[in-house]
Design a protein that fits this description.
It is a single chain. With about 325 residues, the chain is an alpha/beta fold. About 25% of the residues lie in helices and about 25% in strands. It is built from seven helices and 15 strands. The strands form two sheets. Strands 2, 8, 9, 10, 11, 12, 13 and 14 form an eight-stranded mixed beta sheet that branches. A hairpin with a 5-residue loop joins strand 13 and strand 14. It starts with 7 loop residues before the first strand and ends in a 45-residue tail after the last helix. This is Carbon-nitrogen hydrolase. It comes from Paraburkholderia aromaticivorans. GO terms for molecular function: hydrolase activity, acting on carbon-nitrogen (but not peptide) bonds, in linear amides.
């Protein structure tokens, strides 16, 4: 895979703390973040999953409340962000509840570029509300920087196949926005099935190293005016090394992506060494492979075996 046109790309994760049900407030905070990013020569700023329409317990929302949060890709919130992107020259990724043609709803993520282009990914594994549909395709696109970008939202990143697919489609920079637990009255909290701490500390660096790509993650938080929850960001290089990280809400976490590291990474070598003819089981439905002999159950009366660990410098007796 050839190197990108730019030698280095400066990016930022901004773990925005959103105000539930108040997109204009969140848009204003995003514009403020973009202005700060422009002063730091950031080319791309990543905001969290559903940061424009954040609601911690989305699964409990009534139909009318969810409909009130949703808007199309050319709706007022995304359009306001796109205007700020063109004015400030900093690309932005923002999450929202998308109302598509026909009234279907998606947990979506839009990347607005300074040239006016907008790219939208619909979450593949959308469990937040029964009315929110799953996306049905991967999102990978080229940029003016010569960097090919992929998007996976939240637990899209938990399945190794999803990150591998974006890499096979040529992505060398993966945007991985997340959303944390939300604040609810009475102290009730709604969480993702996969703990965010695992994603930040373990899984996202593994996805970067396995596929020889940079990964930028921004975890969103919420405030109800009295209490805050969530807020974290991480930028990882193609070797799985953390370039920058913070658990401070609303912080700007920045790093320079040295694009020459991509071709040198082990992950890119592993991609070239793949043998697709061996991977037929990956395309089959069901939770378990069927082409292998099942494990034989241990016979009754089996004898337990004990093991001992022997140090190298100690004699074996």
């Amino acid at each position: 895979m050839s190197c990108s046109a730019v030698a280095s790309l400066r990016v930022a994760a901004i773990p925005l703390v959103s105000r539930p049900g108040d997109p204009p407030h969140d848009v204003a905070r995003i514009v403020d973040g973009l202005a700060l990013a422009a002063r730091d020569d950031i080319a791309l700023a990543l905001f969290p999953e559903v940061c424009l329409d954040s609601h911690g317990s989305m699964a409990k929302l009534h139909r009318a409340d969810l409909d009130a949060l949703a808007e199309p890709l050319d709706g007022p919130s995304i359009s306001a962000v796109a205007d700020a992107v063109e004015r400030l020259g900093v690309a932005a990724g923002v999450g929202f509840v998308e109302r598509a043609a026909g009234g279907r709803l998606f947990n979506s993520y839009a990347v607005c570029l300074p040239d006016g282009a907008r790219h939208c990914h619909r979450k593949l594994h959308a469990f937040g509300h029964r009315r929110i549909s799953n996306g049905d395709r991967f999102t990978v696109f080229d940029t003016a920087w010569g960097v090919r970008v992929g998007i996976l939202i939240g637990d899209d990143n938990s399945l190794v196949e999803n990150a591998r697919m974006t890499a096979l489609m040529g992505a060398t920079l993966l945007l991985a926005p997340h959303r944390s637990a939300g604040v609810k009255r009475g102290g009730d909290r709604s969480t993702q099935p996969v703990p965010m701490e695992q994603s930040l500390r373990c899984w996202l660096p593994a996805r970067a190293a396995d596929n020889g790509m940079f990964v930028v993650s921004s975890e969103g938080g919420e405030t109800d005016g009295r209490e805050r929850s969530g807020g974290a960001g991480m930028i990882v290089d193609p070797y799985g090394r953390v370039l920058a990280a913070s658990r401070a809400a609303d912080a700007l976490i920045a790093a320079d992506l040295e694009m020459g590291l991509i071709d040198e990474s082990a992950g890119q070598q592993w991609l070239m060494a793949r043998r697709p003819e061996l991977y037929g089981l990956l395309t089959r439905s069901g939770h378990h492979a069927t082409d292998f002999e099942p494990r034989r159950a241990a016979s009754r009366g089996a004898v337990a075996i004990s093991f001992a660990q022997v140090g190298r410098d100690r004699p074996i007796r």
